[in-house]
């Protein structure tokens, strides 16, 4: 199993979710994060003082998928999340040794 | 029932005098005392209405999403300020000074009367000086103050409907025109003693003159501005829930509170037992209509949707208030329950209808102020002392004028400087896009703690 | 000191007249002027008390957890509405119309007097018409308005204690009964001129009639409803911190503000120098008692817990206000500091005691309104003009009646439709469970941004 | 224009009488009616000013960071309470009782007059009793109440500047000294009829006496307390954005609302047509100055920074209000726009200047209350009836005295118990460090849901 | 060392924490997340318009434990977090190459 | 590539970010988390009732870096985040199989 971590623009979440569901990904976990990268944060002025907001709001999607679909899933996320503008984000793939569905105790692929 | 929001006072004063001659001097209210009481009534009820600006600000802050909250706060304090200044610069004169049938005087600025200044500056006040001032029935600036706060209300209504996508400056420009010309001109027709007044049209505190006027202006704007991005995309409506409902609730309570000034003060006099008694009746009707509005909305949303919708219940309170505003002098308070309840029901039903029409009204200002305002005005022709035909005429006349002029103004703004932020700015939120800050920088996604 | 919240006015009027005959007409307040001033006092102080509904809403919104915030907002606007309607439908009549010793008239609805309508509708007001209206001392509906807002306060107290676990509709039903029957009946015993009044029991603005009554009703409800899940599980108490303390602070300030209407307006007249001077004394005592309450709570929590507890200091302000409410006419203001300070101390100590008894009072309404209310009422027998025995009798009589009837009502509700949400719904929060929305959809766990 | 905030009333009463003799008795305001109206004006305007305490609390709650929000709420309710108590204990006497040139009486406590108690307690009020009470022109405690709320305002100003790093108790101690001695002593010089009054210095409602006084005390404190950690570290200024701008907006609206009491009530009388007319003028100037302040700040921030800054626009409204406070009796309302607009502009420019000086003013209280307060006081010497030299003298005299004494007090506090929390506590936030709780426990980083 | 990622129902957090502490797990890191899976989100009505809230609030627990206790820890989390109702969540196990305690510089098992 | 997960004290975030940028780390993703560990939570009193706040606010930094710089990055984070006081946090290193830059489709080291 592969543990996919995708950092995307918040506006893309719904599209990515639907795309993944279409290829049979059954679940994912999402969190609000802040990103730092080539897309520099923006300058803001508050009460006459300029300052830099270093981090940009991003969404982190974590989904564990079967070896087989991992590549497809990554490509799909990439194509759906793409806006060609800086800050589109990254996708990282890690290896997951095991998965377990708490409710049923199922493990491995059944657990996903 | 007051046809003319000003003239009536003369009447009141006269009545004071009559009573005076008729009754043993010691029993009646003296002219100067009446003057003081009338003036103080304008001031007290005026500051109540002024607080409605805060009420609208909180209601709208609570019903928009966080990313547009600071912008709506700015718009609300800006519109209250601009409306007051423009009403001083020209609005009041267009509304009340030498009103013919359709419009008042184009003279600029409005200041205290010479008689009052003479009295105030006198080393030693003579009897004549006092008499001349008292003859007016109330202090001129107290009346101006009370009239001014109504203009701001009209402008507040517009900001709620157009929130979350309109640019700040074009909105401000519209408020300038609304408070300097659109509102005063149509108001002169009735409260200024113009043709609608002669026609027998009556609107005690402004269901049509204030609330529907704001509603029509908002409707024209919403039509040209378009809905928030994604709101009506694909099947059905995508809700964009208000971010802070306790603030919206606070705003509604504050509006309710201010409405005692709105309706109560529109009795326009406190210088006699008659006026005092009538004012009390207005207070009670105002409160009962709002209460009926809340209960109606609770029951309706429970029945229609299986759950009570807080935001609709808040709308219900306001719809009840708007509905009773045209005729809060009903002499059987039970009718206030009926008028308020129906007003709220109409608002509750109007909300989804607007969505069907893809008219995106962020806070429900059109159902509350326009729909319930029309109903309340007509209700005077049904339950109240007014004639239905006259009421209908007034509703139509004001509606056509305000909608047409507003449409043109919005259209010109759109064609020139543009009225809508870009899609990116809308996604980012008006706070960051137009103000470069956030309303809640430490909460949720935009947190500046990181 | 007013025994009867209504009758007193006649007195005032009389006094007006006396002064009138005695003094050179030109120096005194004329009857009609007194009528206007008395009426305006009811209206102004009435709208202040009305805003207390917003104060309670904010206080409670700030002290519950986010997941129950929209529900408490809804309950607060609903109870204010329902209480007003029921008081119009029957409550006022039970409280003030033809009160024997124990209850008033069962007649329905309460509308303006014929005399007032005659005057208002007159083509030309005759001297007699005015005199007849003026004879009453104040406009009848202004008095109704002022009395009405008190009922809502009683109901607000209940909602705070039972928050976060009670179902909306059963709560509303209880409010219907409370405002239509329970409150008016017991109030008739004192302010309606019933047996407690004859007994010499005195309660200037309602430490017992309003605040303790709300407290007793809340206590009965809390007992039958049970504590929030997990609150007293295992060792000690699990705190469930209020989610928005600035709102709670705002609510407290707004209540303090409204209290000037609550106590000041209970002078019930403004038509003479005596009444004006007395009213000013009431304002000062009210403010000092609250201030003493805050300072007492600050010091106590610092000493007891090593840290000042903001929520306790807010409770302290309110406890000081509740305590002075029975006798804000103290003629040495220093005593107001004493009464308010002791009231706050009792409230601070009562909070953990209630927890020991596993009575779960979300906002501390019982310590503040019941405990401090009892103290304040007895204090009139100690520092004020009242007799201690009479005061004690009043406290007990009202307490027994309200608790017993409330218990039965809650019991029947529990046995029939049920008063408590399911454990799952409680965990999910009343906002989603009962209203299907969230108070702060974009913040924290439930964020709808995702 | 009132030189002496009290004496003037005698004048008013006299005028009442004159008018009385001159005019047919039936036409004028009777003495007793004037007494009632004057008293009621103090009470109504007093409760408006009281609500300003809530306004400051919300403004400051909105402009601090979440971790210091509960602490600022506590400070605000505490300072209002303490100020009221100390003004009762000694402050009022130092300010108004037997004032020589520089200070009043050191006597303790202030209670109702014997004449009033005699009237209130009389079985049967005699003509003489009434006359004696009425002779004072207004009820003594109504005046105390109105004067008291001003002290609290002064203290509120200090809390805003020093927020986010000052310890609660030392702050409270400073408020004790400020409200018991510093404020009353300097106020006695002008409103108490002391040397500044004789000099012809005039300050209608307290641009200098209230607002600058608070500003000077805050400045001295900020200087000794130092900036928030990290605020001026390294290059330029590190902004620490306010956490809840809707609350800050609400606070500003509430302050604006209360300001009608602040300025309007400072007319100090309502017992004649002259006073009523003058009061109305004050209301209008107050509103226009604030409106001009908002618009000025909007335009300036747009031009200077390319974006409107909501917090600066809120400051602008307040700066406009502070500026007009010294002379809201301008007889040409256009000048109110000028005075308010300039006041706001000065505040907007002062904000970055303070940062340059590394004086850390969390909410901008110094630009708003001190800078605009000085301007407004001098403006009376330019547009108003005052002499510029006299105005300047007053500004300097008060400034030197308040700054010097405040500096000493802060210095002693710093040297003894210390005034600043530790760096760790500051990082943790005052809420957890000093109160052991959180203002928004469920939102963001500190969330207690986990 | 194993890097355990457990997605559970918010109400179960305290129980799970205590259970883990009992078997000697010294630390964990928790975050608020949104989950998408078989347990569909709920429908809500707002101002007359029905809509679907796709994501459900969940809690993510991350804890790094020694090889030896990993299995036991997973079972324990599963048994404690179980409510038999849909949405109980998942447990994923990844391999962690190294751990370091910042305060002391300790590494490996000592760092946990 | 290495997937570095660092749990640090919130006050240290800026310092750590700057340090990492200095050694050429181009990006990172940050989230607000709650930590449980040796540094016990604090006791608080609310309305007279004492209770324990078990979790302490922490910041989680996730950054994927090239094999080569991983060690240096870890040491740097450790030295920068250190305050010698309990609760300084932990750094965990996992293996990342692949990385992809959504905007450009670059993979591997170029994607970081
Ligand atoms: N090496 C990295 N490790 C972890 N997250 C990263 C890394 N580089 C980028 N990110 C995340 O991806 C987001 C987008 O990256 P950025 O360089 O800004 O734009 P782009 O993806 O177009 O190159 C960043 O905000 C950050 O959250
Ligand atoms: N493949 C997955 N990858 C990551 N997280 C998942 C995955 N599947 C489920 N989850 C998480 O587990 C939670 C519960 O899963 P769900 O399918 O809803 O119920 P159940 O665990 O009973 O099957 C989801 O809300 C989601 O947060
Ligand atoms: N085994 C672990 N797995 C995941 N996170 C941990 C683990 N141990 C500690 N942490 C995180 O590191 C933080 C600091 O650890 P703690 O033991 O409190 O202090 P120290 O790092 O000084 O030993 C904890 O709050 C927690 O967030």
Spell out the blueprint of helices and strands.
The complex is a heterohexamer, with three copies of chain A (112 residues) and three copies of chain B (450 residues).
Chain A: E1 2-8, H1 13-22, E2 28-36, E3 42-46, E4 49-53, E5 56-65, H2 67-81, E6 90-101
Antiparallel strand pairs in A: 1-5, 1-6, 2-5, 3-4
Helix pairs in contact in A: 1-2
Chain B: H1 7-22, H2 31-63, H3 69-96, H4 114-121, H5 127-135, H6 140-161, H7 168-190, H8 195-199, H9 207-225, H10 245-264, H11 273-305, H12 310-325, H13 333-356, H14 365-382, H15 388-415, H16 423-428, H17 430-435
Q: How would you characterize the overall build of this protein?
A:
The complex is a heterohexamer, with three copies of chain A (112 residues) and three copies of chain B (450 residues). Chain A is α+β, with helices and mostly antiparallel strands and 112 residues long. In chain A, 22% of the residues lie in helices and 43% in strands. In chain A, strands 2-5-1-6 form a four-stranded antiparallel β-sheet, covered by helices on one side. A two-stranded antiparallel sheet of chain A has the order 3-4. In chain A, a hairpin with a 2-residue loop joins β3 (42-46) and β4 (49-53). In chain A, α1 (13-22) packs antiparallel against α2. The mean pLDDT of chain A is 92. With 450 residues, chain B is mostly helical. Mean pLDDT of chain B is 93; it is low at 7-25. Chains in contact: A-B, A-C, A-D, A-E, A-F, B-C, B-D, B-E, B-F, C-D, C-E, C-F, D-E, D-F, E-F. The A-C interface holds A 10, 13, 30, 32, 59 and C 447, 449-450. β2 of chain A pairs antiparallel with β2 of chain E.
């Amino acid at each position: 199993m592969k543990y996919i971590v995708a950092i995307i623009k918040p506006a893309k979440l719904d599209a990515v979710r639907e795309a993944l569901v279409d290829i049979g990904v059954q679940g994912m976990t999402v969190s609000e994060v802040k990103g730092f990268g080539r897309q520099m944060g923006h300058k803001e002025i508050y009460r006459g003082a300029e300052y830099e907001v270093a981090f940009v709001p991003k969404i982190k999607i974590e989904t564990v998928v079967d070896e087989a679909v991992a590549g497809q899933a990554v490509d799909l996320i990439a194509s759906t999340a793409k806006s060609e503008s800086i800050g589109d984000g990254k996708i990282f793939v890690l290896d997951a040794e095991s998965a377990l569905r708490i409710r049923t105790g199922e493990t491995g692929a059944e657990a996903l | 029932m007051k046809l003319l929001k000003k003239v009536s006072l003369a009447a009141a004063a006269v009545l004071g005098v009559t009573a005076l001659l008729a009754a043993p001097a010691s029993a009646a209210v003296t002219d100067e005392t009446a003057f003081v009481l009338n003036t103080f009534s304008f001031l007290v009820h005026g500051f109540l209405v002024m607080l409605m600006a805060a009420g609208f600000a909180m209601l709208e802050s609570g019903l928009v999403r966080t990313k547009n909250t600071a912008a709506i706060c700015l718009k609300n304090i800006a519109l209250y300020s601009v409306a007051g200044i423009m009403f001083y610069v020209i609005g009041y004169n267009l509304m009340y000074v030498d009103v013919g049938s359709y419009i008042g005087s184009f003279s600029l600025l409005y200041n205290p009367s010479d008689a009052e200044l003479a009295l105030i500056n006198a080393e030693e006040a003579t009897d004549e000086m006092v008499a001349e001032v008292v003859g007016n029935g109330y202090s001129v600036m107290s009346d101006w103050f009370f009239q001014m706060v109504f203009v701001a209300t009209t402008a507040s209504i517009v900001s709620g409907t157009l929130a979350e996508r309109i640019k700040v400056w074009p909105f401000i420009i519209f408020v300038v025109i609304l408070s300097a010309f659109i509102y005063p001109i149509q108001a002169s027709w009735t409260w200024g003693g113009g043709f609608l007044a002669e026609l027998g049209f009556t609107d005690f505190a402004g269901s049509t003159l204030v609330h529907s006027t704001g509603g029509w202006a908002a409707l024209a704007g919403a039509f040209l501005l378009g809905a928030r991005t994604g709101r009506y995309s694909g099947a059905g409506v995508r809700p964009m829930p208000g971010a802070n409902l306790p603030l919206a609730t606070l705003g509604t309570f504050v509006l309710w509170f201010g409405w005692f000034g709105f309706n109560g003060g529109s009795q326009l006099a406190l210088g006699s037992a008659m006026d005092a008694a009538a004012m009390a009746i207005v207070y009670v009707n105002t409160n009962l209509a709002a209460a009926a509005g809340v209960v109606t909305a609770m029951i309706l949303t429970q029945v229609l949707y299986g759950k009570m919708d807080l935001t609709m219940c808040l709308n219900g309170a306001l719809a009840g208030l708007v509905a009773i505003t045209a005729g809060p002098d009903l002499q059987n308070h039970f009718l206030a329950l009926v008028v308020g309840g129906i007003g709220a029901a109409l608002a509750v039903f109007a909300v989804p209808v607007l969505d069907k029409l893809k008219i995106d009204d962020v806070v429900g200002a059109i159902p509350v102020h326009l729909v319930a305002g029309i109903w309340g005005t007509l209700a005077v022709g049904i339950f109240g002392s007014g004639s239905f035909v006259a009421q209908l005429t007034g509703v139509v006349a004001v509606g056509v004028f305000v909608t047409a002029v507003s449409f043109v103004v919005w259209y010109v703004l759109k064609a020139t400087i543009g009225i809508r932020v870009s899609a990116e700015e809308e996604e980012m939120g008006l706070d960051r896009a137009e103000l470069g800050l956030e309303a809640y920088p430490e909460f949720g996604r935009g947190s500046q703690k990181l």
